[in-house]
# Entry
Amino acid sequence: MDQGILNAQRKHHVRLCILGGARGEGRPGISAHRTEVPIMTSRSRTIALAFLSLAALLAVLLAALLLLQSNPLHQHWRQSYDPVGFWPLSTALAAAPVVVLLGLMAVIRLKAHVAALAGLATALIVAIAAFQMPARLAFSAAIDGAGYGLFPICWIVLPVIFLYQLTLATGRFEALKRSLVGITPDSRLQLLLIAFAFGAFFEGASGFGTPVAVCVAILVSLGFKPLHAAGLSLIANTAPVAFGSLGIPMIALHGVTGLDLLALTRMTAVLLAPFCFLVPFWLIATFAGLRAMLEVWPALLVASVTYTTAVLLMALFNGPWLVDIVASTATLVALVVFFRFWRPRRILSPDGREIAAFALESRREAPGVRETFKAWLPWLTLTVVIFAWGTQQFAHLADTVSLHFTVRGLDHAVERIPPVVAHATLEPAVFNLNWLAATGTGSLVAAVLAGLLMGLGPRALGACFLRTLFTIRFTVLTIAAMLAVGYVTRFCGLDATLGLAFARTGPLYPFFGAFIGWLGTASTGSDTSSNVLFGSLQQTTALSLGLPPVLMCATNSSAGIMGKMIAAPSVVVASTAAGSYGQEGSILRYVLLHSLALASLMGLWVLLLAHLPSLVAHLLHF
# Structure
């Protein structure tokens, strides 16, 4: 009988996922026949809207293809970083798209997709009217950016949300909550375990939006407020970013500067070490306050020391590839073991209230080994698959079936000039459709596999996937528009104009150079992109000022991670995972001061190291 009841409940949950929930269920006096009518009506409306959305998307794609196909093959346009002949005004114009985008979200509180479209319109107007970029090039850059927003960024978000919906439909998320409470019932320690340690693992294995999407979903299920879950996950996702995706930001920085990869890795680890130690304390103080943070200082010390030590050892002696994975795994193990022998004097719930002793005992009913394994099975599946997907052996194999498309009329049509680069360089524009190697594909395989292991059939999986796709439709539009803004600013040279303004600060350049990296990541949503954009500028400026190039190039990546939390794509991923799309302005206001404060501290740390060149030299030749 018990098994039959469980099977019936499972079918009911899946049916809710497929149909969107029954209306009128359980209300007296309403027959079963009458309750089916609104369900079918809602389902029909959802299907109709889905088809309309698909038709609109196809129309936009067709228009984009027509534009690219009609582009002349041989165009050439040279960037100008002071088009009006007065650099403060040129800088103000270059900042306009970012100011409009973030201002509309944080101050006017418009929905993210509206703000993103307004920011895109502003970027196109500034590029064409003020910076004299040919209109075809500007629109082609926007199309290239929107394509990157759809793949791989949205392709990462979709499978993670899909997996989350599957665990809700099968009741596994409730079991996960009981399992986490069994490890530690205290919300501060749950936050440390999930957002900091578990998130760092996903950053190291896959990067992009995966750690934020996964951690936000888990925290919300534990009872954290959606705003807190989103903001705190963004704050936690700082320290591991520079070595994310198996070290790709470092590899990209090495590629554009030609500096020694191990030297860059070591310098970045030295710059990040104080922040690896600080972030756990900062995270819990932000969530619960200073007094509540001090109550759990032993656990925070364990996490900080373990993570920082592992980062330094891996970076100093191995390289950038496994820094995050080793450090996060060591931290997870250390915390779980520590929690078996220690717990804080007070136990706090996610809303900050103290849990009474009798309530605590009822919550600490430890689930059995079998129930715990079943609760973690979907996320263990995701972890194993993502780790396998990120290995070099699989990546090389998967890349053999990748497709590469040059963006007609944009590839090598835009010339970046000194001092942004050492020598005049034509900007490539190649769309990499690595459909098999992409993290999103691995996540989708993991989600489907987990769904089958949880007892769901192909029909239920397909229906839940389509519903998830429809649910994130505005997120897809937002991310595509935001990446279009980033690509227009990159190809037009708006980002370089802003970077050159910081480079004019002379002796204070080590401090403001940190904000160049911060700006790059905040505007593009990627520490890797920031390194590609500003790595050469940092190197050239450092040489002209007599500063160690390795220090300033590593600063670009190390400070860039502080901008990740306010990057518009990151904020949208967090809001979507929290189920609070439309609240991006609130999330942005929640994390903005933290981002600026951490970037300022990084700038001060770099300024200090810039005046200790012998120490920098010693660290690089350790």
In short: The first helix runs from residue 2 to 19.
